[in-house]
Amino acid sequence: MFERILAIILPVFCIIAVGYAYARLRGDAVKTEMASVNRISTEVLSPLLVFTAMAAKDFDLLQNATLIVAGVVISLGSCLLAWPLARIFGYDARTFLPPMMFNNCGNMGLPLAALAFGQAGLSAAVALFMACNLVYFSVGIKILAAGKPEARIATWRLLLNPMMLGMMAGVVASLLRIDVPASLFQGLKMLGEASIPVMLLALGVRMRDVTLKSWQIGVAGAIVCPLAGLAVAWALDLVLPLAGTQRAQMYLFAALPPAVFCFMMAEKYQQEPDKVASIVLLGNLAALLFVPLGLWLGLRA
User: Fold this and answer.
1) Within 13 Å, how many C-alpha atoms sit on residue 21's CB side?
2) Who contacts 215 (Cβ-Cβ below 8 Å, separation ≥6)?
């Protein structure tokens, strides 16, 4: 199991390393270049990744309703557990809390689910991905933008961002069983999947500006995110009627590290992106420990 997980995680860090090396070679000019790339990723590629995952024929929204509830509670619960720790350590809540509620359930969670549970497990993983996005683009963005001009934006307008629009379109396609033409669907899917390496490359580029001072919050985030998620998952395991595979998926979801996308949003809102980059990078390194723990807890249950 460890070797299988390692085979998924190592390519992630290879792409980050390439981004870092490219930034070192290009110098300060790379910041301007990556700004356009990040915008395309957040407004086009990532929404298509969400839509195609939910519009796929093997995705069943109603069958995974309980699991969606679990994902929402884990995301919100992790934020609540992390909030007093942020105050104790003196971290800005706008920097520390959003990565705690939005984990790497996309570019790490989906392939991990396919590896651990087969293609049938992808349906549950997509449901959790949906729940996490819903929480982040409502509560998470509000926290991230607190005290800034963007904070005056109404919640309904936040929910109309490209990522959420892609999710809503996927929900409609799933519920109404809309059959997207195969050739069109394959093209959209290819574009969506391109967002995964682009986000990782962007993280590597941003790591060029990370200072040693940021590693402290990075270590804290890398530990708090999965432990808080697993604590909430354990409590939910006592009350929710989840099937065996869904229970295992819940624990795997809870153990995932902060998402790369958190760094991109911190960059967009200029909320200490170097510190968020440290949380994301060290969190994904710590996944070598916490992801096997989450799988063990889920399969053991």
Assistant:
1) 6
2) 278, 282
List pLDDT tens digits, range 76-107.
999 999 999 999 999 999 999 999 999 988 77
Other residues' Cβ atoms within 10 Å of the Cβ of residue 31: 15
Tell me the domain boundaries of the chain. 2-300
Q: CATH topology for 2-300?
A: Na+/H+ antiporter like fold (1.20.1530)
CA–CA distance, 73 with 233 (Å, rounded to integer): 9
Q: Write the CB contacts of 17 (distance below 8 Å, at least 6 apart in sequence).
A: 204
Residues 180 and 72: their CA atoms lie apart, in Å, by 28
What are the structure tokens assigned to 90, written together?
């003196």
Residue type, 139: V
Q: Using an 8 Å Cβ cutoff, are 9 and 17 in contact? A: no
In sequence order, the β-bridge partners of residue 258 are 103
pLDDT digits (tens, 9 = 90+) for 24-76: 898 888 878 888 888 898 889 988 988 887 888 777 777 788 899 999 999 99
What pTM does this model have?
0.82
